[in-house]
Amino acid sequence: MSKIMQLSSALRGKKISSAELTKEYISRIERLNPKLNAYVCQTFDEALKNAEAADKMIKNGEGTLLTGIPMTLKDNIATDGLPTTCCSKILQGFKPYYDATVWSKLKSQGAVLLGKTNMDEFAMGSTSETSVYGAPLNPVNTTRVTGGSSGGVASAVKADMAVYGLGSDTGGSIRQPAAFCGAVGFKPTYGAVSRYGLIAYGSSLDQIGPITTSVEDAAIVYDAIRGKDTKDQTSVSTEDGKTELAKDVKGLKIGVAEEFFDGINPEIKNAIDAAISLYERSGAEVIRLSVPALKSALPVYYIIACAEASSNLGRYDGIRYGYRAKDYSGIDDMVVKTRTEGFGKEVKKRIMLGTYVLSSGYFDAYYKKACLIRSRLIADFENVFKECDVLIAPAAPETAFPSGYSGGNSIQMYLSDVCTVPVNIAGLPAASLPCGKDKNGLPIGMQIISGRFCDKKVLSAACFYEHEAGIVIENQEDLL
Ligand code: GLN
Predict the structure, then answer these.
(1) How far apart, in whole angstroms, are the C-alpha atoms of residue 104 and residue 100?
(2) Which position among 8, 17, 74, 406 bears the catalytic label?
(3) What predicted TM-score, i.e. pTM, was given to this entire model?
(4) Closest CA to ligand 1's atom 4
């Protein structure tokens, strides 16, 4: 039984109350967070109040599987009256006046929020090291990065400082940290989950999704947050009812695109090959294919994401939100100084790059060309999914790298997104789940991708592997 199922039945069977469970999680956070730096804001008073309210719901026979379960949100998801800072100096002290739709959905089901978790500043990065609060650490091996940008959620879930968490994924930020920390990460189809209240990075790419300790839990959380929202015009309604996870893969057509394996660490390639063989032995059909446009995905992603970021981050001017420079002469000087002092180096780099690719004279050469290649990649994926149900690929070309990469070797950091960004460019659903360990004991992540709104196919295929391969995600307490 998955962790959420187990805890939910313990709560309903009166073996434990949500207040007691929440206190256990609070004491774990007090013990482990000083080492791991996963939480940047702790909301224990609210959590205890929410837990008592959840206990009442349970007593009255109300609520859902998530009622009374302690969880966390990435620090870019708006929470009414609670700090939401994107781990940036420029949003220090900012408390939204409204809840993100995902959080209001969970709150109304009696979810217990333990706090907000660490991330790369404005979700820009793959290590969580660009956070103004310093990086979270990987519970599997604290000399390694958690991945990013939802590194705090992945660290908290892996160390059992939250039963589950919500992250955001613009180019891999749910799947890659889940892979680096040995957890399950699920990025739904673009539009399946409302983005209202998610602080925007690249609006045509951003999507909210869960990080959990099993595929079944990811499906439970996904079902609780998905659906059309009038506050997000890009959201759409998805099929009603619970996501049922298939028990077998007979006849499932699995595509394996050679480009996803270019330059991949051989240990990762071997682990994914072994997983593909397991599917094949279980009755799936494997189709080897090529998607040439995948080779252009990384530059296309960085042009589009930075272009959108340069526009989205225009609103941080010292007037409307958070930080304002102290000494200035006149409004223009105030805006310039606020932005110069408030944004970190990586964010400034991307705003400048994004402004450049949108500027007249360069628009056609970069932004327009990237949009054309984007259409090409979308069309190529559509063709692939006429033939295949899912694609299997690595979640990242490397396992968790040593801390300090984002400063010392930033090329490496950008390259680590090569397997995840194509999915965002085309708005597809994809999960990442553990499929073994490398020689250093670091988790290897496998990615399962499908066509738009085939989220269920992704979760079903992932769930099958998890059961068949006997993957059990243990929490990492012993190593800390
Ligand atoms: N690593 C990618 C980037 O830096 C993806 C980040 C994300 O998905 N938020 O843009």
Answers:
(1) 6
(2) 74
(3) 0.97
(4) 125
User: Hey, which of 117, 122, 129, 173 would you mutate to test ligand 1's pocket, going by the most ligand atoms within 8 Å of its Cβ?
Assistant: 173
* pLDDT tens, residue by residue, 5-58: 999 999 999 999 999 999 999 999 999 999 999 999 999 999 999 999 999 999
* Residue with tokens 């990435």, as numbered in its chain: 74
Residues 52-82: tens digit of each pLDDT: 999 999 999 999 999 999 999 999 999 999 9
Residue 354 above 70 pLDDT?
Answer: yes
| Residue keyed to tokens 């950091």 | 413
d(CA 334, CA 348): 17
DSSP string, 380-405: HHHHHHHH-SEEEEES-SSSPPBTTH
Q: Is residue 353 within 8 Å of residue 302, measured between CB atoms?
A: yes
pLDDT-derived band at 368, boundaries 50, 70, 90: very high
Band of residue 245 on the pLDDT scale cut at 50, 70, 90: confident
Q: How far is the CA of 96 from the centre of ligand 1 (A)?
A: 23
Using CA atoms, how far residue 465 sits from 245, 263, 345, in Å, is 11, 25, 41
Q: Between vectors from CA 84 to CA 341 and to CA 181, what angle results, nearest 5°?
A: 100
149 is known as an active-site residue: yes
Whole-number Å distance, alpha carbon 122 to ligand 1 midpoint, is: 9
Residue 406's pLDDT band, with cuts at 50, 70 and 90, is low
E strands in 67-177: 70-74, 112-117, 164-168
If you take atom 10 of ligand 1, which residue's CA is the nearest one? 124
Cβ count near 357 (within 10 Å): 21
Q: How many CB atoms lie within 10 A of CB 411?
A: 8
Ligand 1 centre distance from Cα of residue 250 (Å):
35
- In the reported structure, the alpha carbon of residue 270 is separated from the centroid of ligand 1 by a whole-number distance in angstroms of 26
